[in-house]
Amino acid sequence: MSTPETILQNSSELDQPPIERASTIPSDWYYDQEVFLFEKECIFANNWQYVCHTAQLQTPGDIVHTEIAGNPILLLKTNDGEINAFYNVCKHRGGPLAIKKGTTTVLQCQYHGWTYLTDGSLRGVPDWNLVELFDEKDFGLEKVTIAEWDGLIFAHINSPKQELKSVLAKIDERIAPVQLSKLQFYREDVYEVNCNWKVYIDNYLEGYHIPIVHPELANLLDYKEYRTEPYPMYSLQYSPFKGEDTIYNSTDGEAFYYFVYPNIMLNILPGRLQMNAVIPVSPTSCKVIFSYFYNDVKAMEKSGVIKSDLGYSDTIQQEDIEICEAVQRGLQSKAYHKGRFSVKRELGVYHFQSLLKESYRSAMQEND
Ligand code: FES
Ligand SMILES: [Fe+2]
Question: How many percent of the chain have pLDDT more than 70?
Fold first, then answer.
């Protein structure tokens, strides 16, 4: 893995003084192509990545496609009730796979039709009788490591240095009695955003912008009580609601907004979960996948809760997209290099940028 010149030239950029004295990361980390490629390896290939909820892989033959650090991945439910994960890459010439029509037990390449069993072994190779020195055993699909935590499935394309359950340690105790594994999947929405993935995450991690960017939300939140709690691999934002007629305070219970390093958010409200995964697309663009889960889809659809939840979340999202895209332009301007943090309001951003620098630093040490 090569280290981007921009970081190497000035490795003091990786120092992280206490928040009271710290600067934000340099602006070129938000648009430099080399930094982008470096992050793919040292962050996205080196951490657990959220893929889907077990509710999305219920029936044998169900498939979920995703991408990790640019690698196409597929997860599927087998007839034995197992969930298997592979690179979605055929060993012939790299084609993509799908479940063969009319079967739940065979994956077929969409290019020349090689077939694989759902354990990844190669089964059928059309028109291959003159080929020599070929052993089917050497051409099985490449497996990917997965782990499940409270119904959420994550994948890791390198050797995990930390178990998933230790990354997410204690979240389940904190959110109890909510059990995420019991939720039903509703739908997934994808937003394309013209900003670096870190701009979107920085923005999620502070409530500082709420009074200006989301005035309606500001009226619902008890902003004085807004808190951020940093943990080793995640942070929690918490804010009680005030006022009366919102969908969020119409049920008892608390709201938790977890950010799990490097790129997912678990927004847990009574009876519902909204997962956001921020996927880098280019140095200056990302896509944000919103997945919605509810404890009773039918009843909550009927009562209108889901409709208002989705509408509300889309409004906030549009406001965030607009500001993130403007910030990206600001970061790329000649006028900006680095900023500072509000100690009171931007602890989450500081915590994220500290973990980011830690990832850069350990990748650079491995390189040495
Ligand atoms: S690339 Fe898959 S069959 Fe050719
Ligand atoms: Fe926001």
Answer: 96
Is 184 in contact with 294 (CB distance < 8 Å)?
A: yes
pLDDT number for residue 1? 64
- Ligand 1 near 93 CB (within 6 A): yes
Task: Check residue 266 and give its pLDDT.
Answer: 97
Whether the CB-CB separation of 190 and 317 falls below 8 Å is answered with no
Calculate how far, in angstroms, residue 115's C-alpha sits from the geometric centre of ligand 1: 9
Asked if residue 21 has its Cβ within 6 Å of ligand 1, the reply is no
- Region 107-131: mean pLDDT is 96
At residue 300, the pLDDT reads 94
The four Cα atoms 183, 184, 189, 194 give a dihedral, to 10 degrees, of: 20
Could you give all domains of the chain from N- to C-terminal order, each with its CATH number? 5-44+179-367 (3.90.380.10), 49-151 (2.102.10.10)
Nearest CA to ligand 1 atom 3: 112
* First vs last C-alpha separation in the chain: 11
Mean pLDDT over residues 140-157, rounded? 98
